[in-house]
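In this section we walk through a basic example: taking a raw amino acid sequence and producing a predicted 3D structure, encoded as discrete structure tokens. The instruction is simple. Fold the sequence below.
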Amino acid sequence: MRIVFAGTPYAAVPSLDALHADHEVVAVLTRPDAPVGRRRVLTPSPVKRRAEELGLPVLEAARLRGEVLDELAALEADAVAVVAFGAIAGPRALATSRLGWFNLHFSLLPEFRGAAPVQRALMAGRTRSGLTVFRIDEGMDTGPVLLQRTLDLPAADAGDVLADYAEAGAGLLAQAFRLLAASDASLAPQEGTPSHAEKIDPAEGRLNFARTTAEVLARARGVSPSPGAWSLMDGQRTKLAGLTEALPGDPRPAPGRIEAAPDGAVVGTGDGAVRLARIQPFGKPMRDAPDFLRGRPDAAFDVHDDPNGDPR
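The resulting token sequence is shown next.
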């Protein structure tokens, strides 16, 4: 088929590669170069870089309206594949291809509709999730389903899980487009109770060590690597990285207190402890937690009195 691929982050690159191997990608649609880092250097998206490596034409747009829609319509594509493009397609955009726009979403719709399905599933403590390929309609992730696949949701940071899901999703999207090309695709309405996965706010990265170990780890995994986990120490925001389950024999300090452990450090929780690899006190560089402890043996994070309270 003649297809347009729309995507922006690294998670979309495996799908671009998979579809490029099977079809004629007549254009790649991505968001414009964005400022990155402290110096705010304009940087192309990962999808744009990969498209240029493949020698594919690139269209850039922050919103799907105006001139870019005329360009899309002129391509006369059979279908548009979407993976984390980052803009809403309205009726005029959806009419630019013969078969429609098909999105790879990183959940089992209608669960976790929205921008952060993997992160929200981890934060909710889920151990299973999956992938959905659906035809986009005018709602937010509400269109009919072409294919779904259930996957484990491992106890890992969201960035690692998303990378694994991106690889598995590329295969599912390629399968869906083979069905479309063979006129053998069937669409079914979404079934079940919808839930929503709004973009993660940086404030949600705050860890309250008065909560249970499971709750602390679920939140830390869901916000890592971005926007990142943090807590308050002496009233100041302190970044945290590399939180994992405590090992047998590790100390179990009071909630929020940091103590040395064999080859590492632990932080007490409401019902136990978690291991902490790295810590970045306010205004200072990131350090290994044991190194930090040598200078602050009495260190502890601020905690709420109510372990069931809102961590923010």
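Looking at the output, two observations stand out. Helices lie at 13-22, 46-54, 67-75, 91-94, 117-123, 158-181, 213-222, 289-295. The two ends are 49 Å apart (CA to CA). In the next section we compare this with other chains.
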